[in-house]
């Protein structure tokens, strides 16, 4: 069986062991705690909660030194402390639950010249020189060795039960139980000393479970009690290091564990079989393996790993005989390598090499050309000559989409159609940035002109093949597009969208889905794509530190009347971003001779081969293995480190060393290097590129799309500066060439040249030698010919007996309509602290916001807004109407934020079509014509975008086209971010609903949600028949916003009028009495037609004024209902009552699909709790015991301020908002990295306070904050410095989220006197913060109560209940020792607790988002100076950062929030402590002379100062 038992030459050396284990006489097991799922699965309501708290212990057993198991020691087992599994954001059981139809898919590679430039160690990250294994070296390297450490369990009990249920249904009912463990495969170059082993042991261990890690497999010991069983092990492929290993090894290097060169984790499953049946056959084993691993990134381990060494040798560069064989040679290599050359390409390149260059190309050159000149990269279709039904179109698609920008010459566009992002003129803003970027320095406010930028792209093909990594790298590539704009820019926030086929979700209500449809085995299922792709994009953004604040979701799968099946088998994974750029950096510099070509970022791996070409094909046309090779993998932490280097350069202003920057994406180096050297040219040495896999061929190094890399142009004199920036952020840097003016890309292999020199051979020719103008410049325009396809349609036919309630049950269940809770809860929506409006609104925080808003800075009120419009189903009937509606929807979403002007609105246009198939290209052209005309009338414009024009997949011999889609992302500047209106109804019985009908009485149902819910498409779809009226309506509503006359607003789009009204009531947790006149259009038409419109809630007393102002603007508005405080919905149409239901009952229907999807992603018991609790939710009844105020101006403008160190580690992402909060309280925040402290560039003696910030240090691969804590605990000078700071009575510390987890691991809270790792109980008594009860990352604006405590930062805040952002995956407080918990409670050392709507302390989910006992959200030290808390006060210290607050607070949105008081308290405490020390200093002055010698002997001056004060006190008395 392929990939199961047979050794594959791509995989590592292995030690043989049987796969099926039976009747094994192993010694009795000590692994009694291994998780087992019983054969009889209990009813769902009896399932235990996911993560049962581990047993509490008092005393750890003695630790023993580790020795690798040998024959002589096989009877002895060395016990280690166990570590929990990581996997923060993505629920691990979700990875198990989808039938992926695949197993390990190995390939064979051969080569001759190896590349050996490995990734440098973090201590020497700057690349210098060239290395090659072809050059003889003295000495022999020690033979590598791999040791294993096993840990139980991998899956917790509830996860295992769910997996067993899946396995029994999809594999075999003969499997009656499952047990799991994880295995750490550790590559050691040399043996570890006992001290180093102890360090590694601590890293891999959970502090309170010493019996759950050992050197032998727990599962193999269990075999003796389960003779009818089989072990299946899966893990990452060995030919490249995973991000897990990269981060784990980085931790080890920071602790001087240089012996550890790789650390990979595999998962092991013991399948317990029914004794009455036979063993599993190979097909069943295949099915199970497919269920629990991803064949693209993982494989089955049939035997124990003994080495990571691979037998693969690099593929040599080959010559393609075009001179001898002509186009036949190109056609052959085109198929073999998946180059996606079309007929015009074959002709052009045959002529280029045979007749122009007159030599044979290399495989590297052809691969390079295929990627950089693919449709994906060069947009041939948009630039091409289009011939429709024999008629040549007068304009290209590019000319059409650019025409609105040209039609408005006096516009605010500063970057349009010429960079990785577009940008518009912004505002002067007070940006908080380091005074000396890239070094240890204070942060201060600097006035800069900051423009607003936007970018958007899709990653559709990769998400179809491997949804999670595909979406990860889609988000990562778009992040690099953002920061690689101009000469470097600033990442702020992102948007996302997903379009998939029919979900076919088990137990769901979806009568519109066709059960006869089959799905291609080479692609993931629509359900898996929706869950895994959203997981991938969310996890990447969470770890990077980019909030996701807007999005869309829809699904579609239907056979149309013409017989065509239309469905998103090839999905849409849309990723957009709004950011900022310093106006001084909007233009890239041109290359000049002598400039250095530099690559910074992660190492090269064999990933993403040929992605540009593969993305340009219909799925199924390419070879399956080539498709899998084309998908990349992401490393969010590396992306963040890379961004920090770029940001430091951008923050240097006019001193920015970057001349030009391009991100590495499709085509890898093939694209990015040629782009940055064009047109001057350069010679590039392939061996200068940093690699992470020595088996890479030249082709793979040059063409693979490994992520997290940028190419830069810098001047030689800037090299040392850039090296220092990279060293500080621990990012590799390599100078790979120099601009030489040759006008060519010349790629040389210095290793091959050295080999030839040593062996007396003639020097090899360059690997690549091409004139840039001939492969990257103006190339012949392509011609595309296609025909129109006649539309076959018929009117919507719904049975007369269908009631409004019947229709609502269907429509509210559609993924495009239903709650998006399943997407919004798992994404960080608050990181950066610059989010003024994200998805959730109202007292219940439902995901219904129309517009997203960011602030430019923490101190100004200017910002930017963005909104999305897309209506693909309408395009099946009328592509022109679809384009206009997409624009209209974007504007009717954008209108709820106050913008600078409508004419300032620009947009990204993203096109997703199967454009080269008949009918689709013509539809797309028609849509572009309508789009241009509509935008010109509105005075707005497209200024960028992307296209994906192969949106089709083959299935059972049929080409299934996706519905064509145009996504419009409108963005604009905001003069006042507080002037934003949300959809939640707010006025109770005083509210009136107004309807602005942009359809002017027309009620067309074609392409509507109602039609889809009844498996139809209809024949007449909505449109914008009066574009100028839309413009006037936009401007009229903007005027009402300025005067604060609108309390709530919502657009009418998917689902029609009735759905929009219901959503407003859902969000406001109130009721509505609707009275609608159908105007003879029909009941369903009046309620469900998706004609554009606006709904406004206004106060009854303002009604006449509002109507007058609208009429003055030429806008008609009708009163359609009354808001009610009682949560009931009444619907009267034409005087007849058609609906009377409780708001909560209708909301339950709207939430149902989302909760079903949630059940696939987090613990089902948690999903049930939230679902049931939502029925009875009320508004939070927060109250304050004080009035928030701004910090005294004198403190803010003082020439000397107390210094606070904002400390961050690799992967931290919450440092800027933390610095802003302290700055707003009158501190001087300093940017301090752990590398600064380790290098001695800064000392904690200089600071009165330190803040450990939030994020994912080292991606939390060895548990949250474990690597960060180890870098302190196991560096003696550093731990001493931290302990000295901790003990000084004039200091304070704050740890938030990841910083909170760190402070617990350091033993700083609750302190040694109570119970911590610093006390007598050691780690076994130390409270920890472990995985959330739900098993998933959770981001919520949650309620907390501040109680009485000694915490200095909560002085005067006691008794307050209020909201706060919470965003973490491991926030559940766990107390191994119950006595410590009792002491914490009795001593009031838990100052912040989660509470419910009634302000009661709670453990109930989701009020308590992580399951912490007694609602504990924070811990402090007994003296109150040290505080650790999981929620994020630094992300909501201004009221505009609050997503909702009770009107009873009567606080201005532009003012400070209650959480600023925390930081102000710290400032006051420091001032008071400073005054006390000054007083005692005066008294002790006479004693100081006598003790100067004593003071000089102390490392800590304060320790010497104490006896002086004591004696001075005695003198004064």
Describe the structure.
The chain has 1517 residues and is of the alpha+beta class. Among the domains are: 12-40 and 77-106 and 144-310, no CATH class; 1193-1478, Class I glutamine amidotransferase (GATase) domain (Rossmann fold); 1484-1516, no CATH class. The protein is 30% helix and 22% strand. It is built from 47 helices and 56 strands. The strands form 12 sheets. Strands 13, 14, 15, 16, 17, 20, 46, 47, 48, 49, 55 and 56 form a 12-stranded mixed sheet that branches. Strands 2, 3, 4, 5, 6, 7, 8 and 9 form an 8-stranded antiparallel sheet that branches. Residues 1-144, 611-617 and 1478-1517 have low confidence and may be disordered. In the N-terminal section; belongs to the FGAMS family. Residues 1-78 are annotated as: Disordered. This is phosphoribosylformylglycinamidine synthase. GO terms for molecular function: ATP binding; metal ion binding; phosphoribosylformylglycinamidine synthase activity. Residues 330-379 form the Phosphoribosylformylglycinamidine synthase linker domain.
Summed up:
The protein is 30% helix and 22% strand.
- Cα end-to-end separation: 89 Å
CATH architecture of the domain at 1193-1478: 3-Layer(aba) Sandwich
Q: Classify the oligomer.
A: single chain
Helix content, binned percent: 25-40%
What structural class do the secondary elements suggest?
Answer: alpha+beta
Mean pLDDT: 87
- CATH topology annotation of the domain at 1193-1478: Rossmann fold
Largest sheet: 12 strands, mixed
The H-level CATH homologous superfamily of the domain at 1193-1478, spelled out, is: Class I glutamine amidotransferase (GATase) domain
- Rg calc: 32 Å
Give unreliable regions as ranges.
1-144, 611-617, 1478-1517
Tally of helical segments: 47
| Strand portion | 15-25%
DSSP summary, beta strand count: 56
CATH class of the domain at 1193-1478: Alpha Beta
Q: Choose one word for the global shape.
A: globular
Domain FGAR-AT PurM N-terminal-like: 819-972
Biased composition (Basic and acidic residues): 1-18
Organism: Oryza nivara (Indian wild rice)
Domain Phosphoribosylformylglycinamidine synthase N-terminal: 182-303
